[in-house]
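Look at one such:
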Amino acid sequence: MTKKKNISAKEALTRLREGNQRFTSDLRSLESLLSHTRRSELADGQTPFAVILGCSDSRVPAETVFDQGLGDLFVIRVAGNIVAPSQVGSIEFAAEHFGTRLVIVLGHSHCGAVNATIDHLENPGPSASVGLQSIVDRVRPSVETLISAGLSGCELSDAAVKANVRSSVDKLRHGSVLLENLIDEDGLVIIGAEYDLSTGKVEFFDGLPAGLDN
């Protein structure tokens, strides 16, 4: 498959910011609303301008949060926005085959996976689910560091969401030779962000290169 031409990370981030601004203002772009009319066109291929690794939480659908339509975003959703081999491979695929140059790891406030990890560490015991335990184990290192620093309650939960996002960003930047090469040589940018369930706003806070910061 031939890699397609795509927009730069800077332009992609601008589109996401503008889309989120529309979302928080209770507006929709005409283009996203009418994107379903492009179904037949998209059947022949896609060129998503950004990859979103987000949480499975039903309140954080990336296309809605960023006011985008069919074919705009390559979305990977998993509880706790964790990074496992399948997520890495999915992002490698989008970056290599679609030329997508912006990857966002999107966490959110009051994340159930993060809070489940905190609860497990504060109240140790056997897990009833091997699958859930595998998610907790990937979130655990970020939370343990914060607990060791003396954080607790809401302060711990809020900090843990960001720490978990940063951990996922770091794993993507340094856990794939293909992604590392694209970062060094071809303009790939991997950024962390957090969605606020109350306001609808997305804060980009990790890895913003010069020229892409707020």
